[in-house]
Amino acid sequence: LRRVLGAGCRADFPILDQTLPSARRLTYLDSAATSHKPSSVIAAMRAHETRDNANVHRGAHTLSVRSTAAYEGARDKVAAFVNAAAREEIVFTRGATEAINLVAAAYGARLSAGDEVVLSVAEHHSNLVPWQLLAERRNLTLKYARLDEHECIDAAHLASLLSPRTKLVAFAHVSNTLGAVAPVEEIVAAAKRVGACVLIDACQSVPHMPVDVQRLGCDFLVASGHKMCGPTGIGFLYGRLELLQEMPPWQGGGEMIADVFLEGSTYAPPPSRFEAGTPPITQAVGLGAAIDYLSSFGMEEVERYEQQLGAYLYRRLSEVPGIRIYGPDPTTGRHRAALCSFNHESVHASDLATFLDQDGVAVRAGHHCTQPLHRELGAAGSARASLYVYNTMEEIDTFIDSLRATIDLFAELE
Length: 414
Ligand code: PMP
Fold this sequence. Notes:
Blueprint: E1 27-28, H1 39-52, H2 62-81, E2 90-93, H3 96-106, E3 116-120, H4 129-138, E4 141-145, H5 155-161, E5 166-172, H6 184-193, E6 197-201, H7 213-216, E7 220-224, E8 235-239, H8 241-246, E9 257-261, E10 264-267, H9 281-297, H10 299-318, E11 323-325, E12 339-344, H11 349-358, E13 361-362, E14 364-366, H12 371-377, E15 382-386, H13 393-413
Parallel strand pairs: 1-13, 3-4, 3-5, 5-6, 6-7
Antiparallel strand pairs: 2-8, 7-8, 9-10, 11-12, 12-15, 14-15
Helix pairs in contact: 1-9, 2-9, 5-6, 10-13
Bound molecules: 4'-deoxy-4'-aminopyridoxal-5'-phosphate.
4'-deoxy-4'-aminopyridoxal-5'-phosphate binds near residues 126, 127, 172, 235 and 369.
């Protein structure tokens, strides 16, 4: 039986079926911040907690064996989902932020004064601040690629920043504010020409489209479980095995060692070397179940559905007078994801979000952890509507009706 997205899968998400204190039905348009979990993910985590819970690795007893199988099984699922060449290339972390901090600490340990890291002005704070901290510690130079006229990363400008001193190029596959899809191929090719490693922040791509680390040709890729139908507290780093093998540990503790002596210790091979302490086991089980859920549709189908939905959102929103949408216009053939950040010429973004909430419509307002990008766009913040597999065209209509009514109300008050 072919599984259907949108209205066809809404019943899988119990949280969506609710009436809010405003007496309105929930219209959830904030999945770029965090997505919801289908019953199958909730059930898998509950089953693990009620039947299999034990600490992983080394335990001889039945529950520990089950827990280990579940945790390592989740790693296999992630590896297959992003087409890693080996399961050891997947390191579980608390989220994408921790995965980037891991790379900054462990890969960063090999960088020295004068080495360069190239980023873009559109990065999420979690792909900026870890590099700023590292740059301070090791006297590195950070360079920032600007945006082109479509408000995408300007690949030519980025390439012009590269030099033999560039050790890493790190950028978001899909911008959580612009919805722009980065010109990955061009950037990776340019980085390889100067021998730099590439880190892709795939927080907003892995949940929404097929992502193949081998095809992308990246050295590192990070994502968060909670944006892809899984729970918070789990994310992953993909790292090319030779690179991970060369990298020193970043946190010390149990699990990450080979032998410990009072005089010093030796370390486990990857991925354990980078997973100190008891890991988020139930969360990994949840992420594995989320991957099963998304795979039941197929990521090509997820992308196809979201492209339709995203194009409709963009069109309806761009028809509202006084609205400026950031990022590329999909009608120019530019690839963009199913999210729109926008401002109205006179109504403040946080007022829009507050009034939309009165109609049960959940959108985000603020800087979306991209303050430098908002400065670049000449805005203090913006409102953002972001879509996922369970959203429908009707919900977009509800959003647009509520938005128009809010704007009219503010016009009357003036
Ligand atoms: N990068 C991007 C592009 C994101 O959208 C987010 C989440 N908003 C992050 C990084 C950080 O993810 P997390 O907070 O789950 O670590």
